[in-house]
Amino acid sequence: MLLNYDDVRMVHFELTSRCNDACHMCPRNLNGGALNPELELNSWTYDDFVEYMDHEFLLQLEKIFFCGNYGDPALEKDLTKFSRYIIENYPNIKLAVHTNGSVQNPDWWYEMGQLYNIDNKHDVIWSIDGLEDTNHLNRRNTIWSKIMENSRAFIEAGGIAHCKLLVFKHNEHQIEEARNLINTMKLK
Given CA atoms 135, 139, 145, 151 in this order, what sign does their dihedral have? Predict the structure, then answer.
């Protein structure tokens, strides 16, 4: 069965192929964590997005995922600008951002929290794979304290935050403690 363009209601939009992380199983990295030489580093510009995204197509969408198969959308400096454009022009669309949370700063994340709190339907999914002593074993190059500062700023601004935890042998003993941290921080 062929996909009918008119039937599409959700899209996964890859804003950038840049990422600060070097996860073991990520296709952007080689076994040792080095960048895959086949991967071209680039990002969409805000102007290109506005110019090339079809207005009628955006009107039919219900959800856009800014999620990186190859990059972390929070590394796109204009993510707030992309988000504001969609929220203001296409109020029927729900936005969801997936991030490791270890980029940008608390002020940037506070602004994202305010923006994503406008109609209380947008959210950010924080990919945290353990606690302070284990998160970095899979999410290499991330900084735990920065993740905590950024996620707290987002939540304090009223943003809806969810947590996605991948379970590995090295963090399986922390599931309950991670659940308690998530509840304390008001992550869902």
Answer: negative
pTM as predicted: 0.90
- Mutual angle of helices 175-185 and 144-156, in 10-degree steps: 40
Which residues have a Cβ under 8 Å from the Cβ of 69 and sit 6 or more positions away?
A: 12, 14, 27
Extract the tokens encoding 160: 């809806």
As a whole number of Å, the end-to-end CA separation of the chain is 37
Report which of 155, 66, 9, 185 is spatially closest to residue 165, judged by C-alpha positions: 185
What gap in Å lies between CA 102 and CA 21, rounded to an integer? 9
Q: Which SS3 state, helix, strand or coil, does residue 67 take? A: coil
- In terms of Cβ atoms closer than 10 Å to its own Cβ (0-12, 13-18, 19+), residue 126 is buried
pLDDT in tens, 123-150: 999 998 889 999 888 888 899 999 999 9
